[in-house]
TrEMBL record:
InterPro entries: CHK_kinase-like, EcKL, Kinase-like_dom_sf. Residues 140-322 form the CHK kinase-like domain. This is CHK kinase-like domain-containing protein. The lineage of its organism: Eukaryota, Metazoa, Ecdysozoa, Arthropoda, Hexapoda.
C-alpha cells in the first residue's frame, strides 16, 4: 500500500530510510499547524504517524511536521522557492552532517551542533526522480518539536534574560562551528556551505518596501527625523559583503518564531533553531543585531544591550578555542566594528520585521496580496514605533548608524 496524506504523496517512500524493511505505516493523522499570516514561505502540517513493526506487531507513534510550498504564486515568487527550499533541504542533509563531522574530528562531545536543531527525517524536491526542480510535491519532514515539549514564546513579549542567553548559546554554536570549518577546511566550506548561501532579503521589492517603511516610521519622530536627515545614503544601503575574519554561515531570519524552547519549572532548559530557508554567508553580527532588536523586549535592551553583545562574543571565543583557533583576530573591538559595519542594513531589516511580524495585525496581513506602505505603517503599534525610534537613537549614539 502506498500512503498519501493530504498534499503529501508517497509518504511511505518519503520515510523509507526510517521504515527500513521492518516497519510499515499503519495510520496517519494530519492537521494544519501554520496560521493565516504566519510562515508565509511555507505551509506547515503536523503528522501523527502510527508505525507498526512487521515482526511483532508492536506500534510506535512518530510525530513530524511537513513543510510544503505556499499556495499563492506571488508568495512563491517573493520567497524564491527554487532557492529557499533547496537551501533548507541542503542545510539538514549536507550542512549539519558536515559540521557534525568537524566536531567529531576534534573530539567534541558536549554542546553538539545537532542538539540545537530539529531532527530531519526526509526531504524531497519532487516525484520526478531527480534533484533538478522544486515543484508542488516538494516537502521537508522534520521532528515535531511540540511533541517533545518545545514551544514558541509570545513574540510580542519577547525573551527574558535567561531565555535570551540560551538562544544566544545556540546561535554561537551555529556560527562558531561554521566559522571553525571555514578556517580549518576552507575547501570543504566552499563546497558544502557556500553553494547554499543566498542574500535573499536584499533582492527584489521586499527590501525596497522595508526602506520606505523605515523612512516613514523614523520621520514621524522629531528626534529620529533629525538623525536620519544627517545620514547620507541611508536609503541606498545594501547587504554588506562578508568581511574576514568573522564571515560565517548565518541564519538571516533569527527571531522569536524561528526558535523553540523547552522549560522545566519555569526555567529554560533547551533551545532549538528552526527555519533555514534564508541562510547566507555574512557577519555573525548581522544575526546578533537582528535577534536582539526583534526578540528581546525594549526595557531589557535598555539595561542589557552591552551585556548581550559581550555574552555572545565571550561564548564565540570559547567555541573557537575548542577547535584550536587563534582568537587574537576576533577581539571584542573587532566584533564591535562588525556591528557598526552591518547596522545600516540590519537596522532597516529589524525595523521592518518589528512592524510586520512582531507587532503586526493579529492573523497577519492578507496573504493574497502584498500590503501597501500605508497599510504597513498604519498597522504598526505604538510599542513597535517606540522600539524603532529607540533603536535609531541608540545606534546613532554608539556610532553604528551615522
Amino acid at each position: 500500500m502506498t500512503w498519501s496524506c493530504g498534499e503529501i504523496k508517497n509518504l511511505d517512500a518519503l520515510l523509507s530510510n526510517y521504515l527500513g524493511e521492518t516497519k510499515t505505516i499503519h495510520d496517519v493523522k494530519i492537521k494544519k499547524l501554520s496560521q493565516p499570516g504566519e510562515n508565509l514561505g511555507s505551509i506547515i502540517y503536523g503528522l501523527d504517524i502510527t508505525v507498526k513493526h512487521k515482526n511483532d506487531e508492536n506500534e510506535e507513534l512518530l510525530h513530524v511536521i511537513a513543510k510544503v510550498l505556499p499556495k499563492a504564486e506571488h508568495i512563491r515568487e517573493m520567497f524564491e522557492i527554487q532557492t529557499t527550499y533547496t537551501n533548507e533541504m541542503a542545510f539538514y542533509k549536507i550542512i549539519i552532517p558536515t559540521l557534525k563531522e568537524l566536531q567529531e574530528e576534534h573530539g567534541i562531545r558536549i554542546n553538539l551542533i545537532e542538539d540545537h536543531f530539529a531532527k530531519c527525517y526526509s526531504v524531497r524536491k519532487n516525484l520526478l526522480g531527480n534533484d533538478d526542480k522544486i515543484d508542488d510535491d516538494a516537502v521537508l519532514l522534520l521532528e515535531n518539536l511540540i511533541s517533545t515539549g518545545f514551544i514558541n514564546i509570545d513574540k510580542r513579549k519577547g525573551f527574558d534574560i535567561d531565555t535570551a542567553q540560551m538562544v544566544l548559546r545556540s546561535l554561537v554554536q551555529f556560527h562558531g562551528v561554521s566559522l571553525a570549518l571555514k578556517i580549518k577546511k576552507p575547501d570543504l566550506f566552499k563546497r558544502n556551505i557556500l553553494p547554499y548561501c543566498n542574500n535573499f532579503f536584499k533582492k527584489g521589492s521586499i527590501f525596497s518596501t522595508a526602506i520606505d517603511l523605515f523612512g516613514i516610521t523614523v520621520n514621524k519622530n522629531e528626534e529620529t527625523k533629525e538623525i536620519l536627515s544627517k545620514i547620507k545614503g541611508w536609503n541606498e544601503v545594501d547587504y554588506s559583503s562578508p568581511k574576514e575574519p568573522f564571515s560565517t554561515l548565518v541564519h538571516d531570519d533569527l527571531w522569536t518564531n524561528n526558535t523553540m524552547q523547552k522549560f522545566e519549572n519555569g526555567k529554560p532548559v533547551s533551545n532549538k533553531l528552526v527555519d533555514f530557508q534564508l541562510i547566507t554567508h555574512a557577519s555573525p553580527a548581522a544575526d546578533l543585531f537582528f535577534y536582539i532588536w526583534t526578540s528581546i523586549p525594549l526595557p531589557l535592551i535598555k539595561t542589557h544591550l552591552d551585556h548581550f553583545i559581550k555574552y555572545y562574543h565571550d561564548n564565540l571565543i570559547g567555541t573557537l578555542q575548542l577547535y584550536g583557533i587563534d582568537t587574537a583576530p576576533f577581539s571584542f573591538q573587532a566584533f564591535l566594528d562588525e556591528i557598526e559595519n552591518i547596522t545600516p542594513f540590519q537596522i532597516i531589516h529589524a525595523a521592518y520585521f518589528t512592524i510586520i511580524a512582531i507587532h503586526g495585525p493579529k492573523g497577519g496581513f492578507n496573504p493574497d496580496r502584498l500590503p501597501t506602505i500605508e497599510e504597513l505603517y498604519s498597522a504598526a503599534t505604538d510599542e513597535a514605533r517606540e522600539k524603532i525610534w529607540y533603536m535609531v537613537k541608540e545606534c546613532h549614539r554608539r556610532g553604528w548608524f551615522k
